[in-house]
């Protein structure tokens, strides 16, 4: 290779660093697109970086030595710009990847570390190489007027990782790659492999907990809808009817032999209309949990109260809802359910008090405003009923759900009350 025409390291640095701010602004624009469009159960956080000059220079010498003899222009590499999308759970990686594919032209997708043995200490992450949209790149004017256009197709790498994967990558970079250190000592390698395995196991465990929570939430949603349906039927003086098991999406997987296992079994029995079985399981949990474990007592008492309610055992339901409130004075749903029972019993003052206490704890409950409006209507407090109905609609109640009460109130106002 000729040496007379070589660019000096100083000149290569000047060429590269002239674009640093331009690249940084470009990546900021990419991050804004991601923030505005990526929707996961827990929103990811983002980092971006322009490749350090020393790292860039070493790679130029290794991959593009011929360019060092080129004219005085930027030597372009595809990994000069990088964005990290850091997610809470493993499932978010695939969900995030699918959404990224809809936002950008994808040049390449690579799973880094997938080929490593379990005993090795590399860690996985998904790397997506995207073509930069034109509107992400600032115009070469103003402070960028002196920059030469880059003739290569501009790309940016988006790395998708969990929080733990990102933590490992940061430490790994400092311990190994940044210092060019490769541990040969067997005990040390085993320690690094152990840390890697522990982090991987933690990610898997977090995902399993998340899966359990999602299954539990689906079961709770089914049971809650059943409760509201029964309440509406009773308020309309119709016979309360338990929905059949075929009406529900069942949750059948749970961890055997734990309180979580018992809760899921109880909720499944509850959803399928096996109410006495559900009550028995809830009662077993209450008997097994220490009295000072207020959070669990509050939740299980609330669930058993809903089961008693579905069995038309209203006094026992009221007692459980009250016990739930005594265990947790912020149990706004227990106040709400207690208010529904009082409404059915036509104890309207008590119902209004319960709904009001629930809203004092959590004011963003459309259905609570709606049901308090119904009670206000019954006690001929029509203006208060209309105010509550309007708030319920504002908070997201569907118009068709409110139509009947709204028509009644309009008639009352039309008649001068």
Strand coverage percent: 5-15%
Termini distance?
A: 98 Å
Q: SSE order, as H and E?
A: HHEHEHEEEHHHHHHHHHHH
Uncertain segments: 116-122, 238-257
Roughly how much helix do the residues carry, as a percent range? 55-70%
Helix run count = 15
Question: How much is the radius of gyration in Å?
Answer: 31 Å
Global structural class: alpha+beta
For the biggest sheet, the summary is: 5 strands, mixed
Count of DSSP strands: 5
| Mean pLDDT over the full residue set | 82
Shape: elongated
Strand order of the largest sheet: 1-2-5-4-3
Descriptive overview:
With 417 residues, this protein is of the alpha+beta class. 59% of the residues lie in helices and 9% in strands. It contains 15 helices and 5 strands. It has helices at residues 9-17, 20-37, 53-63, 90-103, 163-177, 186-235, 259-271, 275-288, 294-310, 314-327, 332-344, 348-361, 366-378, 382-394, 399-414; strands at 45-50, 81-87, 105-112, 125-131, 155-162. Strands 1-2-5-4-3 form a 5-stranded mixed sheet. α6 (186-235) runs parallel beside α7, α11 runs antiparallel to α12 (348-361) and α14 (382-394) packs antiparallel against α15. The longest helix is centred in the middle third of the chain and has 50 residues, at 186-235. Mean pLDDT is 82; it is low at 116-122 and 238-257.
